[in-house]
Amino acid sequence: MDTPARLIDGLRHAGRAIVDYALPPRCPACGAIVAADRQFCLDCWSGLHFLDGPACALCSIPLPTAAAGADLQCGACLAAAPPFEGAPAAVAYGRAARTVALRLKYGRRLGHARLMAGLMLRPLRTLTGEEGAVGALLVPVPLHRWRLWSRGFNQAALIADELARLSGVAHDPHLLMRAKATPSLRGKGRLERERIVAGAFSLGADAKSRCLGRHLILIDDVHASGATLRAAARLLRRSGAARVSALTWARVVPEALTAGAPFDFAAIDSDMDDERMTG
Questions:
Q1: Distances (CA, A) of 58 to 85, 252, 268, 272
Q2: Would you give the distance in Å from CA 1 to the centre of its chain?
Q3: pLDDT at site 218
Q4: Do 200 and 176 meet the contact criterion of CB atoms below 8 Å apart?
Q5: Per residue, what are the HEC states of 199-239?
Q6: Whether this model's pTM surpasses 0.90
Q7: Do 6 and 72 fall into the same domain?
Q8: Following DSSP, what letter does each residue of 122-142 receive, concatenated?
Q9: Can you tell me the distance from the alpha carbon of 240 to that of 246, in angstroms, rounded to the nearest whole number?
Q10: Which of 61, 185, 231, 261 could be joined to 197 by an S-S link, Cβ 3.0–4.6 Å?
């Protein structure tokens, strides 16, 4: 390395040291000082429950008692198959996963999208399998225009953009559109939720030509009740796609516990799934 290059490199490291001293990297979940950006502290990392075990072949809900590699379906999918083939998530919805998602969505911590996408790479590669990046297309779940204008960004689109950059899989933020705003899903049963989100989405201009024969992968931050993902997937299935899947950062599962107590699923509906479906 010549002298000017060494000087530039030294200045860069010095500048980084000054920034880290004034604004040290912090855990994205609890705010504790950590060694590098987008790194969890030990406690928060240990609290993440990665969903990489046996799961339902259709909806990807964990099946902890099933044999690894078994092609099984959960009771709900046997009763009524979902409109997607696989809906994995990186982690179970818990304290750390919830905080990261909410800080992206409401705290404008846009860098969290890169962190989430990095941990979603493994389930994405499981979804794409041997096809790899060829033929797959990432489709972020859209916000209604009023919600987008008030917030300024769509967290699902940010995650999809980072996933595309990291994986090489193409993404299309304009393929799926929100056709209408809908009321809150809070306190509604499954059939009522399905009725509310029916017709909430539409395809963008010339979308069918971009869908034909592709493996479309819906991208969102949290999979709570699943009503939003199912509504979007039903429309995409009619677009000529060869296959429709879904991928999220965190998924609500009955086995996931926080502080030793079961999740308050009504609260989860309120702060995650419902919020997207209002405004």
A1: 5, 16, 23, 23
A2: 42
A3: 98
A4: no
A5: CCEEECCCHHHHHCCCEEEEEEEEECCCHHHHHHHHHHHCC
A6: no
A7: no
A8: HHHHHHHGGGTTTTEEEEEPP
A9: 17
A10: 231
Q: Are 179 and 202 in contact (CB under 8 A)?
A: yes
For 70, the domain range is 48-276
Q: What is the pLDDT of residue 2?
A: 62
In the block, residue with structure tokens 């040290």: 24
> Does 90 share its domain with 115?
yes
Cβ contact 188:220 at 8 Å: no
Same domain, 186 and 266: yes
In the chain, how many domains are there? Answer: 2
Are the C-beta atoms of residues 151 and 245 closer than 8 Å to each other?
no
Q: Which residue would you say has higher pLDDT here, 192 or 49? A: 49
What pLDDT sits at residue 197? Answer: 86
- Contact in structure between 101 and 221 (CB atoms under 8 Å): yes
Cβ-Cβ contacts under 8 Å for 258 (sequence gap 6 or more): 94, 95
Could you read off the pLDDT of 118-140 as tens digits, one per residue? 999 999 999 998 777 788 999 99
Answer whether 141's CB lies under 8 Å from 231's CB: no
Residues 25, 78: Cα–Cα separation, whole Å? 46
Rounded Cα distance, 124 and 51, in Å: 12
The whole-angstrom distance between residue 24's C-alpha and the CA centroid of its chain comes to: 27
Do 119 and 192 belong together in one domain? yes
Residue 123 CB contacts under 8 Å (≥ 6 apart), including other chains: 51, 52, 88, 89, 90, 247
Give the helix/strand (H/E) hosting 161.
helix 155-167
Q: CATH number of the domain at 223, please.
A: 3.40.50.2020
Q: Please write the tens of the pLDDT for every residue from 19-77.
A: 444 478 999 999 999 888 879 999 999 999 999 888 998 999 988 887 766 678 888 89
